[in-house]
Every structure is written in structure tokens, then in C-alpha cells.
């Protein structure tokens, strides 16, 4: 056993982590490569106006969404793979699944990248808290502890897939399109169904289990997992509120404009020179909502 493994196992107590550490490092480097090299190169080539003509901050936000989309496309199928092959009656508190270990390593690599970028390119404290909390919760699963819940919580990234599509549509002048409206419906329904309903059930079940075992666990685990669970659940509800608010603003702003188009300045139903043809429509949800999943 090398000094690093000894530190991880005996000092940190993460007894299952060493075999998966290379996967975690490769995942972090892979997401960093997408962020710093692949996304900028491909985006400048395929989206010369929407990406290449923007400033550094806007280009970084674009690259962040590319990384987020890559993670969502990877982690959701991997989590479903773990759940599909799960034993009939897993130990929800202290059980371990080698397949889950690899999935956690990919997730930890992503959340490590996410937390670092949220600090380096700071925009909102919520994104920093999200990255740090997720990294802490998943890395501590290697004790092993609550490995049962990890793949289930990673299914939250289902809504991230549609969120990123919505964001890219905004940036490529597809705001208000039928495609964005359909994607917005998938975004809201997946966010509500997976994160709030299913995720809320998992969070409640998790907290109940944690309270039942609180005398068998280090105080640090009880505090970190309880706080992280409440924080992430609260962020989900906050972000859902932000999406609904954005949707309501868009409906609210479009109705008066449409009425002016139909009625016109003279009040007789004639469209004046400032009017525009075509009907008003909902223009999607969560405009500008977040840069991190």
C-alpha cells in the first residue's frame, strides 16, 4: 500500500476509493479537456456567430454547457445501468456495488471540475455550493456509505439535458421556436418529475435512514449529508421556481405586445407601423437559468 492509498483509507476512511481513483482523475481531465479545448474548437467551427463572436465570459459559459451536456449524456445511462443490475435487496446504508464505484468516479471527476470552474469563473454562490456539496456527498460514498442512493440522485441530470438544449436554442436565435417550446415542456416535466417528485422521495427516505443510523456514524457524516441533502433539495425547488417565473414573465410580456399588435395605436384594430405580423407565443422557460447543472 502506497502513502496515498494509506492516507485515503486510514486517514480519510474512504476504503473503497483507491481502485477508482484513476477513473476519477481521468474523468476530471476529460471534462477539463472538453471545457478548455474540444468545446472551444468545435463551437468556433460550427457556431461562428453564436460562439466565436462573443466575449471571453460568454464563450466560457458556452463551453460550460457543453461539458454539462457531455456529463448528462454519460451519467444518466451509467446510473440506469447500475440500477438495472442492482441486487434484489441492497443494503441502503453500507452496501457497495463495484459498478456504482465507477459511476461515482465519473461523477466526482465532473463535480470536481464543476466546483473549480464555479470558483475560478464565479457568477453565483449557488453554483459553488452545488459543486462542492455534490463532490463531498459522492466522494464520501466510498466509505462505503449510502452507495444505494447515488445512482438514483444522479438521475436528476435527466433535466439538465433539456436545460442545456434550451440554453443553446436561446444562444442560436431559436428563442420562441416550436422546438424550444416542446423542449421547454420536457424540461419542466423532467425537472418536476425526476428532481422534485422522485428526488424528493429519495431525499426524505435518505434523511429518515440517516436519522435512524445517526448514533452509528461519525458526526461529520451526519452533518455533511444532512446539510447537503437539504441544500440540494432546496436548490432544486429554487431553480424550479426560477423556471416558472421566467415562463410567467414571458407570457406576461407577450400578451400586451400582442394586444397592441391587434388593436394598434388608433384603437380600431389597425396595425400601425410598429406592429408585427404573427401571433404571440410562449418563448420557452428558464431564460438564462444557470450555467451549471
UniProtKB/TrEMBL annotation:
Keyword line: Membrane, Transmembrane, Transmembrane helix
Membrane topology label: Multi-pass membrane protein
Protein name: TLC domain-containing protein
Residues spanning the membrane: 20-42, 62-84, 125-142, 181-198, 218-240
Pfam families for this protein: TRAM_LAG1_CLN8
Localization terms from the record: Membrane
Compositionally skewed regions (Gly residues) per UniProt: 266-276
Region annotation Disordered: where it falls in the sequence: 258-293
PANTHER family attached to this UniProt entry: CT120 PROTEIN, TOPOISOMERASE I DAMAGE AFFECTED PROTEIN 4
Major subcellular location class: membrane
GO term, biological process aspect, one: lipid homeostasis
Domain of life: Eukaryota
Limits of the TLC domain: 57-252
GO cellular component, one term: membrane
Amino acid at each position: 500500500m502506497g502513502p496515498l492509498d494509506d492516507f485515503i483509507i486510514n486517514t480519510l476512511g474512504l476504503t473503497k476509493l483507491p481502485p477508482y481513483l484513476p477513473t476519477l482523475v481521468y474523468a476530471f481531465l476529460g471534462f477539463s479537456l472538453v471545457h478548455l479545448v474540444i468545446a472551444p474548437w468545435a463551437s468556433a467551427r460550427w457556431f461562428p456567430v453564436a460562439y466565436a463572436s462573443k466575449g471571453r465570459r460568454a464563450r466560457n459559459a458556452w463551453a460550460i454547457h457543453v461539458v454539462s451536456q457531455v456529463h448528462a449524456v454519460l451519467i444518466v445511462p451509467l446510473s440506469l445501468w447500475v440500477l438495472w443490475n442492482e441486487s434484489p435487496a441492497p443494503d441502503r446504508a453500507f452496501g457497495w456495488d463495484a459498478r456504482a464505484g465507477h459511476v461515482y468516479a465519473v461523477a466526482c471527476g465532473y463535480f470536481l471540475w464543476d466546483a473549480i470552474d464555479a470558483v475560478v469563473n464565479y457568477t453565483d454562490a449557488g453554483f459553488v455550493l452545488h459543486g462542492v456539496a455534490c463532490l463531498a456527498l459522492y466522494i464520501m460514498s466510498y466509505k462505503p456509505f449510502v452507495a444505494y442512493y447515488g445512482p438514483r440522485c444522479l438521475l436528476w441530470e435527466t433535466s439538465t439535458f433539456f436545460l442545456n438544449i434550451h440554453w443553446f436554442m436561446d444562444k442560436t436565435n431559436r428563442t420562441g421556436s416550436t422546438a424550444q417550446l416542446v423542449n421547454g415542456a420536457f424540461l419542466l416535466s423532467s425537472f418536476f418529475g425526476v428532481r422534485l417528485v422522485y428526488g424528493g422521495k429519495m431525499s426524505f427516505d435518505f434523511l429518515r435512514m440517516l436519522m435512524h443510523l445517526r448514533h452509528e456514524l461519525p458526526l461529520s457524516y451526519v452533518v455533511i449529508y444532512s446539510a447537503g441533502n437539504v441544500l440540494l433539495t432546496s436548490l432544486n425547488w429554487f431553480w424550479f421556481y426560477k423556471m416558472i417565473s421566467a415562463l410567467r414573465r414571458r407570457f406576461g410580456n407577450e400578451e400586451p405586445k400582442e394586444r397592441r399588435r391587434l388593436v394598434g395605436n388608433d384603437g380600431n384594430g389597425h396595425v400601425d407601423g410598429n406592429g408585427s405580423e404573427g401571433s404571440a407565443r410562449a418563448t420557452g422557460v428558464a431564460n438564462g437559468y444557470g450555467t451549471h447543472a
